[in-house]
Amino acid sequence: MRTDGSRPRSRTRDFQAEVRSWLAANVPTDLPSMDTPEGFAAHRAWEKTLFDARLAVVSWPTEFGGRDASLLQWVVFEEEYYAAGAPAR
C-alpha cells in the first residue's frame, strides 16, 4: 500500500481535467443580467445544467446531487469555474 498520497492527488487531477473539459463545452457566453426576469430565468437554467452534471454543489453528498468532493476538489472546481469565465452565481 502506498502512503505517499499519490492517489488522492491523481483523483484531484482527474477531477480537475473533467471539470475543465465540461466547463469548456458548456459555459454559456451570452447570459443576460440576473437583474432582469429573462436573466433570472437564464441563470436558473444554467444552475439546472450544473445540477444535472452534479456540479452545482460539488461538496454535497452524491445522494443529494453532489460529488462528495473533498475540500481540495471543491477549491479546484471554484478555480476552474472562475478561469472558464462562467456566469456569476
The N- to C-terminal Cα distance equals 41 Å
**What's the rounded overall pLDDT mean?**
92
* Low-pLDDT residue intervals, each spanning 5 or more residues: none
Shape: globular
Radius of gyration using CA atoms only: 15 Å
| Strands, total number | 0
H/E order of the elements? HHH
Strand content: under 5%
Q: Count up the helices.
A: 3
Notable characteristics:
89 residues; mainly alpha; 0% strand
Provide a quick synopsis of the model.
56% of the residues lie in helices and 0% in strands. The protein is mainly α and 89 residues long.
Descriptive account of the structure:
The structure is a single chain. The chain has helices at 6-26, 37-52, 71-83. It is mainly alpha-helical and 89 residues long. The radius of gyration is 15 Å and the shape is globular. The model has no long low-confidence stretch (mean pLDDT 92).
Helix and strand topology:
Elements: H1 6-26, H2 37-52, H3 71-83
